[in-house]
């Protein structure tokens, strides 16, 4: 199998590239930034955000791939040039979507047929998920009307090595190493659904060559669920320390900038997502439990990740000062 990966220089895309190579796939990457690649992988340079670059870079190679993985499309206009290039030429097109497409649900776990945001929802807080909805709808329409071989993968919160964002595990590991308190919105009980980034990559590879996956959408999550407070405790266990948790009233947590934690569930309540469909259709199952996932992430952070980030705890200190001030105020009566 010959694969083209859009992205491939960080996190999910980078794990995907190495997993494809490990499984013997001929891999080509198109991205705008250089990153270490497995032996034998080919890199095409191009910034897809620049008009015309996708066609300019990929048109000479449009007949060289069996499957295209697009990790970096957020709006329909991102997909259109790729569809024009590869319709009728590839056997599969895999789009990395997100569970952010879903509306809040009273019923858990959330399954693939549950309600999603409207593609014209103007709420800026939903913009990321709404963009992914529009992409999914565009690809689904093409699949129905002309057989374009698209699959959409709705990925939950990821955990694991090589995150590009300090606001995920790295900032928590840094706080824990420095003995800083961990600020937890409310009671920390809302649960979050995580998946190790390597398990995402393995599922993406499992889609390749599976005709049953064409035209489908899959939730991509881990087999275990924990709460936000549970995430903090598991990260502390990985670091080998006890976490000093400070519970922040929700009215203060909602005003905090930057947010106290990157999980939006902390303020609106938890959600979990069924992976039964992926388990039934694909030769895949999650290989990392949550404790092992955080240990793996911390091993990377300790070995090399800590040097990639600078941490600013001014926001934490401002919230701690506000909490101290509120406690020192006299109460009526």
Q: For the residues shown, what is the average pLDDT?
A: 95
The number of E-state strands comes to: 12
**Tally of contiguous helical segments:** 12
The shape is globular
The secondary-structure element order is EHEEHEHEHEEHEEHEEHEHHHHH
Percentage of residues assigned to helices: 25-40%
Poorly predicted segments: none
- The class by helix and strand makeup works out as alpha/beta
Question: Which strand order do you get reading across the main beta sheet?
Answer: 3-2-1-4-5-6-10
N- and C-termini, Cα separation: 75 Å
Strand proportion, as a percent range, falls in: 15-25%
For the biggest sheet, the summary is: 7 strands, parallel
Radius of gyration: 21 Å
Structural features, described:
By secondary structure, the protein is an alpha/beta fold. It is 38% helix and 17% strand. It has a 7-stranded parallel sheet with strand order 3-2-1-4-5-6-10, with helices on both faces. A 3-stranded mixed sheet has the order 7-9-11. Helix 3 links the parallel strand 4 and strand 5. It starts with a strand and ends in a 5-residue tail after the last helix.
């Amino acid at each position: 199998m010959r694969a083209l990966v859009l992205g491939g220089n960080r996190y999910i895309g980078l794990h995907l590239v190495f997993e494809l190579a490990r499984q013997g796939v001929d891999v080509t990457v198109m991205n705008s930034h250089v990153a270490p690649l497995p032996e034998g992988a080919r890199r095409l340079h191009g910034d897809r955000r620049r008009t015309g670059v996708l066609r300019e870079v990929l048109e000479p190679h449009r007949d060289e791939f069996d499957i295209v993985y697009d990790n970096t499309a957020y709006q329909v206009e991102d997909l259109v040039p790729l569809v024009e290039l590869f319709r009728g030429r590839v056997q599969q097109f895999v789009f990395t979507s997100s569970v952010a497409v879903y509306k809040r649900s009273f019923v858990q776990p959330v399954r693939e047929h549950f309600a999603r945001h409207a593609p014209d929802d103007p709420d800026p807080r939903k913009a990321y998920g709404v963009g992914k909805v529009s992409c999914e709808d565009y690809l689904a329409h093409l699949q129905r009307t002309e057989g374009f071989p698209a699959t959409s993968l709705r990925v939950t919160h990821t955990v694991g090595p090589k995150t590009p964002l300090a606001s995920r595990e790295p900032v928590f590991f840094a706080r824990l190493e420095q003995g800083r308190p961990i600020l937890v919105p409310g009671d920390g009980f809302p649960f979050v659904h995580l998946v190790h980034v390597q398990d995402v990559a393995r599922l993406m590879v499992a889609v390749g060559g599976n005709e049953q996956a064409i035209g489908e959408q899959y939730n991509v999550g881990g087999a275990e669920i924990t709460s936000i407070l549970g995430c903090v405790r598991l990260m502390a266990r990985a670091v080998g320390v006890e976490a000093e948790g400070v519970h922040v009233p929700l009215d203060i947590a909602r005003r905090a900038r930057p947010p106290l934690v990157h999980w939006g569930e902390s303020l609106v309540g938890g959600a979990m997502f069924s992976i039964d469909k992926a388990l039934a259709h694909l030769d895949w199952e999650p290989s990392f439990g949550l404790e092992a996932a955080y240990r793996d992430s911390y091993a990377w952070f300790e070995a090399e990740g800590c040097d990639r980030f600078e941490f600013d705890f001014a926001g934490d200190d401002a919230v701690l000062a506000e909490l101290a001030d509120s406690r020192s105020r006299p109460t009526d009566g």
